[in-house]
Design a protein that fits this description.
single chain, about 325 residues, alpha/beta, Rossmann fold, six-stranded mixed beta sheet, 10 strands, globular, GlxA family transcriptional regulator, INH-QAR
């Protein structure tokens, strides 16, 4: 979904955010550097193009020690909450294995900040910290698409949305990669106007500012590189039916093709059979769950449509060169 301008935000959502000037970043170990810098750089550039110190930012860590990003670069905290005072908003910036770093100290800190009326946000896997602290109950929120399914089941009181970012009252949640850049551009637009936000995006050679209603997933035709409507629909059906895979006959029937025609199309455009393509989708999903969640191998086996752990392990080894148990250890 494309937008030519910033997405309008409801007045009740924008009101507490229009005056944000001091932005705090709570960086957890293994945080995503691209998500963190995408957010900070927008603030820096807004000051530059606006020729004024509209924004300042503070980097803090739970223990006051430097935090190492997932790319190995260490970032030192610039201050503490005690020294800098409460920011106008505090974003939790995290990355891989976030569950290992959201402990009682982090939860207590976030609850204390929330109790003082400070808006809270999370970027990349940072929203998990807000979820664990119970600070997103009753809110709309988003998380990275890899984590959407397991977290949706674990936190039924949160209304998850498959969007780049969600602003709901005094909570802001954002996915990873460069999505924080879009969130911050929208926040700059709320405070300084769309013209300034557009100037910032031009400085970064960003073609357009994505809005809160843009979806996380790249359209199927762009991802797989073909435009045949029937084939795109089959891939969509496969992606939507991982836990209970559809048979080749069911897939063909749903798109009004014969099985033979469907097989020819896959061979022509993707050089694989539909069965192999479907299996690869399920195995990639399994790898995401093994790497990014605490779900047991038995649970991963089931939710990815494998009826036997033995069958799952054999298929996984054939695809990735090692067993699911090894994948879990490598990601630890």
């Amino acid at each position: 979904m494309k937008r030519d301008a910033l997405t309008p935000v409801e007045p009740h959502a924008a009101a507490p955010l229009a005056g944000l000037a001091h932005v705090g970043f709570l960086t957890l170990p293994n945080f995503s550097m691209i998500a963190f810098t995408s957010a900070v750089e927008v603030l820096r550039m807004a000051n530059y193009v606006g020729r004024a110190q509209y924004y300042r930012w503070s980097v803090i860590t739970p223990d006051g020690e430097p935090a190492c990003a997932s790319n190995g670069i260490t970032v030192k905290p610039t201050t503490t909450l005690a020294e800098a005072g409460m920011p106008d908003v505090l974003f939790v910036c995290a990355g891989w294995h976030v569950r290992d770093y959201v402990d009682d100290t982090v939860i207590a800190l976030l609850r204390d900040v929330a109790a003082q009326g400070v808006p809270l946000g999370g970027i990349c896997t940072g929203p998990y910290a807000l979820l664990a602290a119970g600070l997103l109950d009753g809110y709309r929120a988003t998380v990275h698409w890899e984590d959407m399914s397991p977290l949706h089941k674990s936190y039924p009181h949160v209304r998850f949305a498959d969007e780049l970012f969600v602003i709901d009252r005094d909570r802001m949640t954002c996915t990873g990669g460069t999505a924080p850049l879009d969130l911050m551009l929208n926040l700059v637009g709320m405070r300084l106007g769309h013209a300034v936000a557009a100037q910032v995006s031009e400085q970064f050679i960003v073609e357009r500012i994505r809005g809160s209603t843009d979806y996380q997933h790249i359209p199927v035709d762009a991802r797989v590189g073909f435009s045949r409507a029937e084939l795109i629909e089959v891939v969509r059906l496969m992606e939507a039916n991982i836990e209970e895979p559809l048979s080749l006959n069911e897939l063909a029937r749903l798109v009004h093709l014969s099985q033979r025609h469907l097989q020819r199309m896959f061979k022509m455009f993707l050089n694989v059979s539909p069965t192999h393509y479907y299996l690869t989708l399920r195995l990639r999903r399994a790898r995401e769950l093994l790497r990014n969640t605490d779900a047991s191998i038995a649970r991963v086996t089931a939710v990815c449509g494998f009826h036997s752990p033995c069958h799952f392990s054999k298929a996984y080894r054939a695809q990735f060169g090692h067993a699911p148990s090894v994948e879990r250890r490598l990601s630890a």
